[in-house]
């Protein structure tokens, strides 16, 4: 898939005021389900509580705060279930989004603004995922840097780029890859075999997505060495990433071809949807960094996964306290 595609203007796709379901999910036992390293306890799913439509922002915040307070009582806090709250088909504007996000952050609640017409996973047809720090727990380029003693230097550039502090992602990637010049290509296999791990809940989410008939793909600013192996291992429909140049068994410090930056990620999502005859509104995109914003904005549903603040603030769904399978709490598979 190398044909150039113009990315649609997404301005009209995110109106100032739109009708959504607001769904909140909280673990009733503090710490259960919160990601720490590779530990991921899956608690039992509790009932979904549907609330009446609030007549004001203050009313919504009061109802939400009362629900959270109730979950903190000992009888609830010890039962190890996830509780969900839904306000169906309400008008949400930017002020409401900001206020709800702030309340959820204070109380460790994951939240979603879902189109009221698409409430199940099967209402979507494509699931696009970033790789580094999204589908997997590591940043592959940082781990490669560890093999040549440059991890700290590379990781600092990676963090700045993901926070959006380096506006030119392509240049930041070239800087980091240049620091890998001379590294033996065997380090790629070592990182894959010894350090690459799927994010908590990834297997469960992908299993549900495939069962529901979604096409799944990786769209990454990382490297094809890793995305191609994950594509084959996980049964994904496609993978799109950067190709490292290797000469005589050594990395040259260069990337071959067009760099997969924010624009290219969005264009790839658009190309895949066109290939499968899927409307963009039927796509879900998951990412964590500034390089994912255009892809998340283009998709029908943008998901920020343990993301930088600049990403979480603009996504439909913000997952901070669950694994990737937290998406199934917002979009049940059945």
Tell me, rounded to a whole number, the average pLDDT.
87
Q: What is the ordering of alpha helices and beta strands?
A: EEHHEHEEHHHHHHEHEEHEHEHEH
- Regarding quaternary structure, what we see is single chain
Strand order of the largest sheet: 2-3-1-4-11-10-9-5-6-7-8
- Helix fraction, binned, reads 25-40%
Approximately how much beta-strand content do the residues carry? Answer: 15-25%
Q: Total helix count?
A: 14
Q: Mind describing the biggest β-sheet?
A: 11 strands, mixed
Draw up the topology in text.
Elements: E1 17-27, E2 44-51, H1 57-71, H2 74-77, E3 81-93, H3 94-106, E4 110-115, E5 126-129, H4 131-135, H5 140-147, H6 151-162, H7 169-178, H8 186-194, H9 202-211, E6 215-223, H10 224-234, E7 238-247, E8 250-256, H11 262-275, E9 283-287, H12 293-298, E10 301-305, H13 309-312, E11 317-319, H14 327-330
Tell me what the structure shows.
- With 334 residues, the chain is α/β, with parallel strands linked by helices.
- The chain starts with 16 loop residues before the first strand and ends with a helix.
- The chain has 14 helices and 11 strands.
- Mean pLDDT is 87; it is low at 1-17 and 30-41.
- It is elongated.
- The protein has helices spanning 57-71, 74-77, 94-106, 131-135, 140-147, 151-162, 169-178, 186-194, 202-211, 224-234, 262-275, 293-298, 309-312, 327-330; strands at residues 17-27, 44-51, 81-93, 110-115, 126-129, 215-223, 238-247, 250-256, 283-287, 301-305, 317-319.
- It is 37% helix and 24% strand.
- Strands 2-3-1-4-11-10-9-5-6-7-8 form an 11-stranded mixed sheet, with helices on both faces.
């Amino acid at each position: 898939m190398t044909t150039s595609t113009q990315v649609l203007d997404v301005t009209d796709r995110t109106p100032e005021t739109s009708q959504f379901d607001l769904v909140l999910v909280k673990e009733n036992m503090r710490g259960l389900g919160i990601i720490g390293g590779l530990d991921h306890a899956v608690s039992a799913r509790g009932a979904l509580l549907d609330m009446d439509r609030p007549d004001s922002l203050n009313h919504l915040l009061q109802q939400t705060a009362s629900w959270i307070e109730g979950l903190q009582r000992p009888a609830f806090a010890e039962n190890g279930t996830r509780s969900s709250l839904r306000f169906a088909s309400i008008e949400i504007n930017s002020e409401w989004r900001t206020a709800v996000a702030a309340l959820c952050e204070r109380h460790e609640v994951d939240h979603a603004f879902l189109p009221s017409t698409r409430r199940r996973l099967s209402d979507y047809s494509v699931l696009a995922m970033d790789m580094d720090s999204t589908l997997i727990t590591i940043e592959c380029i940082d781990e490669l840097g560890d093999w040549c003693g440059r991890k700290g230097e590379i990781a600092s550039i990676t963090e700045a780029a993901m926070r959006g502090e380096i506006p030119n992602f392509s240049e930041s990637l070239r800087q980091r890859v240049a620091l890998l010049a001379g590294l033996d290509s065997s380090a790629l296999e070592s990182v894959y075999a010894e350090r690459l791990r799927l994010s908590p809940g990834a297997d469960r989410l992908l299993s549900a997505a495939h069962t529901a008939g979604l096409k799944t793909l990786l769209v990454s600013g990382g490297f094809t060495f890793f995305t191609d192996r994950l594509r084959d291992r996980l049964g994904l429909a496609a993978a799109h990433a950067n190709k490292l140049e290797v000469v005589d068994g050594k990395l040259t410090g260069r990337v071959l071809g067009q760099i997969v930056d924010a624009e290219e990620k969005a264009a790839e999502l658009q190309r895949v949807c066109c290939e499968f005859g899927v409307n963009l509104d039927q796509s879900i995109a998951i990412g964590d960094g500034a390089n994912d914003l255009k892809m998340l904005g283009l998709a029908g549903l943008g998901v920020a996964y343990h993301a930088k603040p600049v990403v979480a603030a603009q996504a439909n769904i913000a997952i901070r306290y669950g694994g990737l399978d937290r998406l199934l709490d917002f979009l049940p598979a059945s």
